[in-house]
Task: inverse folding
């Protein structure tokens, strides 16, 4: 089963990638729902970028604690100058 983990970030030129705290985040079993949640945050101006990653449930070695593992496919959402939200797929 595939899930979709999403995080909304408010990046600016002063913040190095990976240092910014998330504005919002979540996990769902529906990519469309993850995109809608991200679009709401982008549309309100609360975030400048949303990243969605396809993940699958797994267990850590040694402790068998539940976790999620990236599948390698992701989507980046941003607002255009016209105010629309665009999504670009990329691979990690």
Result:
């Amino acid at each position: 089963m595939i899930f979709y983990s999403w995080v909304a970030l408010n990046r600016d030129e002063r913040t190095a990638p990976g240092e910014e705290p998330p504005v919002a985040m979540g996990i769902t079993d529906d990519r469309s729902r993850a995109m809608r949640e991200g679009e709401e945050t982008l549309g309100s101006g609360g975030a400048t970028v949303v990243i969605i990653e396809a993940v699958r449930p797994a267990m850590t070695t040694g402790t068998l604690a539940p976790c999620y593992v990236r599948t390698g496919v992701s989507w980046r959402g941003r607002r255009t100058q016209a105010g629309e939200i665009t999504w670009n797929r990329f691979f990690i």
The chain has a mean pLDDT of 91. Residues 3-91 form one domain. The first helix runs from residue 31 to 43. Strands lie at 3-9, 22-28, 49-59, 66-79, 85-91.
